[in-house]
Specification:
297 residues; mainly alpha; Ribonucleotide Reductase, subunit A; two-stranded antiparallel sheet; 13 helices; 2 strands
């Protein structure tokens, strides 16, 4: 295991940093080079022996390798002219996302070994990403920014509410919490890159584009993850309206991740929004002790 790499971001004067947004001056992004599930691979229903909960998280994970590669390229495409602080943010973001990609590839292979076919999900993601190649790069950054807000919202909820991974296989739950910790740490990177890339735009244009893109992303995200989860459940022999009702309750009832993140989702449309308007780094300190090798100086 490689030693952790810390990226302190207080490399610009405070007056300069204030132009980029309220990213904390004392924020440190730590690259925790962790590996999970190599010896003990996840079982078929690794989350509390619940096919609904397992299916939802497997459907999420199936999108991450291609999705996070897209995020990296979208952010890197707009780093020209960035100040030292944003440059450091982007480097740390890229390193964390590369590790996330590696671990979710391993996790997805374990899901396949457990009997799931993820090809249809992967092909859908690939087809959707193919559509992005001919559109302006700034729109890809806007998509990335919206999806990074989704990952940050869910990361906060996963760490704050132990119910989400209650009864899960310990090593697999640890992988998801590790991912969540780093999503919180770099949750402002895509947004700060957006502010840098659109510095010549009017505030209204910036708000309009990011808001419209969030509405599009939300529609696609919920529709596609719903469909993906149902496809995985069908492979378990589970289908019909009762299964759909159970999935809906899982998402908006108990534990209700989509219901719980709704206020944070709504805040995205406020004119003064920034991911770090809500500083939830205390959750990192609460869970980071699980990865002792990653927090050594």
């Amino acid at each position: 295991m490689n030693a952790p790499t810390k990226f302190p971001l207080d490399v610009e004067p405070a007056a300069t940093m204030s132009k980029a947004g309220p990213t904390p001056a004392d924020l440190t992004i730590t690259v925790r080079d962790q590996r999970f599930g190599r010896q003990n691979k996840p079982g078929r229903w690794w989350l509390n022996n619940d096919p609904i909960a397992t299916g939802w998280h497997n459907a999420l994970s199936a999108t991450f390798p291609r999705g996070e590669a897209f995020f990296i390229e979208a952010v890197k495409a707009h780093r020209e002219g960035a100040g030292p602080k944003l440059e450091a943010e982007i480097r740390a973001f890229v390193k964390q996302e590369i590790n996330h990609t590696r671990e979710h590839i391993a996790f997805n292979r374990a899901a396949v070994d457990a009997g799931y076919d993820l090809d249809a999900i992967d092909q859908r993601v690939a087809a959707n990403l193919e559509l992005t190649k001919d559109r302006p790069a700034i729109l890809n950054l806007a998509v990335t920014m919206a999806l990074e807000h989704y990952t940050a919202m869910m990361a906060q909820e996963f760490l704050a509410n132990p119910q989400h991974f209650a009864g899960a296989e310990p090593e697999t739950a640890a992988m998801w919490r590790w991912h969540a910790i780093e999503e919180i740490e770099h949750k402002g990177v895509a947004y700060d890159t957006w502010l840098h890339a659109t510095k010549d735009w009017t505030r209204y244009k910036r708000w309009k584009v990011k808001s419209l893109m969030m509405l599009i992303v939300t529609t696609n995200f919920i529709r596609n993850r719903w469909q993906d989860t149902l496809e995985l459940l069908k492979q378990d022999g589970l289908s019909g309206w009762k299964v759909k009702a159970k999935l809906a309750w899982y998402l908006v009832g108990t534990p209700g991740v989509l219901r719980r993140i709704f206020p944070a989702w709504l805040s995205y449309f406020l004119p003064g929004f920034h991911p770090w308007n809500h500083d939830d780094r205390a959750l990192i300190g609460k869970h980071d002790s699980e990865f002792k090798d990653a927090v050594l100086a």
